[in-house]
Prior knowledge:
This protein is mainly alpha-helical and about 180 residues long. It contains ten helices and no strands. It has helices at about 1-10, 15-30, 35-50, 55-70, 75-90, 95-110, 115-130, 135-150, 155-165, 170-180. Helix 4 runs antiparallel to helix 5, helix 4 runs parallel beside helix 6 and helix 6 packs antiparallel against helix 7 (about 115-130). The longest helix has 18 residues, at about 35-50.
Amino acid sequence: LEKSLALARQTQDPNEIAFAVWQLGRAAAARKDYAQALEFMTESLSIYKGLRTYGGIFFLLGDLGKAALEAGDYQRAVSHYNEFLSIAWNEGYDRRIAEALEQLASAILYQQPEYAARLLGSAEALRQSSSSELFPYQKEDYDHTLDLLHSHLDATTLTHCWAEGRAMSVKQVVESALVDSL
């Protein structure tokens, strides 16, 4: 990856630089070096934002949020997931909105488990209405979030909050998430 980054810098290709730096960040996260991961990924995000490459931006905001979450920096994770949600909402990407709600739920569930359950209920309803299922690589994180919710909420409360989330409009849940999770 370091050689790839060196070559990308030689050719001055911003897409290749951003990708190589991002992958170095992912490698650092896999080593649990979250400070380094966040540094690399933040650099990559800056490049992708300059290029307005939404695919890279979405993935990076998700990876940044997860690295912050793993590092125990819940507020930073929420900030990244909120940015992800805001961009997805403004661009009208239902799949990405659902993904952002799921990721945001994982970041707030320790402080606000009932609200996290509402977000997951909303994400589920949005995924069903837009026929967008979880990708296999997302399933493990989603299942982990669900397991944690089950350990924080009794079955009745979880079912009730989930149903409330499913009943909310996408606009309601996005506006609420962008305000209430800050």
